[in-house]
Design brief:
The protein is of the alpha+beta class and 228 residues long. It is 46% helix and 22% strand. It has 2 domains: 3-135, Sandwich (Jelly Rolls), CATH 2.60.120.10; 146-222, Arc Repressor Mutant, subunit A (Orthogonal Bundle), CATH 1.10.10.
């Protein structure tokens, strides 16, 4: 893959002039990871950040008793690890490839040097970090305020919105990992899918989900509706 062309199409770098794209490409490195390989661990020095060119990476925390909570699943063109790079210090979570992955790595010192040369790049970073803050607020709300069907409904709405309001979506991660993202158990996800299907909100065909009643699904997601 042509690295300058890839960088130019990453939302983080949209609108930057060709010269700046070229300078970013010159400091960038590509790194490959097999499925299950660690990208970085909680507490590692934050020496740079990553952008997937192929594959996906889960960002997660571990509790004292070893329980895993997935915070994000990062895919094509979605930067991760950037916050501690600019704040200084260490990565606050683990990152692991859940598929064979090719990642673009941007070393912290070189990238910060580019920002000093062109502050417009910092404005793009602020927009990205603001979006991440909203995502974390949504995660806290899901885990603390919503029951499992509401969390699942929110995830299905998210998948639909990602596909511009499509009524048919694919569960893009295994059920066990989805349960982890939603802060519940795989059996609970299965029961919630069955209840939502029996109630006419969705149709389930393996990983293929057809949204039959979007209005009620959105109400379930927001907490203003419930299953019958």
């Amino acid at each position: 893959m042509d690295i300058p062309s890839f960088i130019a199409n990453v939302p983080l770098f949209k609108g930057l002039p060709d010269g700046q794209i070229g300078r970013i490409a010159r400091v960038a490195q590509t790194r490959t990871y097999r499925r299950g390989a660690s990208v970085f661990s909680d507490g590692d020095p934050a020496d740079g950040f990553y952008i997937p060119m192929r594959g996906r990476v889960k960002i997660y925390k571990l509790s004292a008793d070893g329980r895993e909570q997935v915070l994000h699943i990062m895919g094509f063109q979605e930067p991760f690890g950037e916050v501690p790079v600019f704040a200084g210090g260490r990565f606050p979570a683990h990152a692991q490839a859940i598929e064979e992955s090719l990642l673009l790595f941007l070393p912290a010192s070189a990238f910060i040097g580019l920002i000093r040369e062109d502050p417009s790049l910092a404005m793009n970073m602020l927009a990205l970090l603001s979006q991440r803050l909203r995502q974390f607020a949504g995660l806290v709300e899901q885990l603390s305020l919503k029951e499992a069907p509401g969390r699942l409904a929110s995830y299905l709405i998210y998948l639909s919105n990602r596909e511009k309001g499509a009524s048919v979506v694919q569960l893009d991660i295994p059920k066990a990992l989805l349960a982890n993202v939603l802060g519940t158990m795989p059996e609970t996800v299965s029961r919630a899918l069955s209840k939502m299907a029996a109630d006419g909100l969705i149709k389930v065909e393996g990983r293929r989900i057809t949204i039959l009643d979007r209005k009620r699904l959105e109400a379930l997601s927001s907490g203003t509706g419930s299953l019958r």
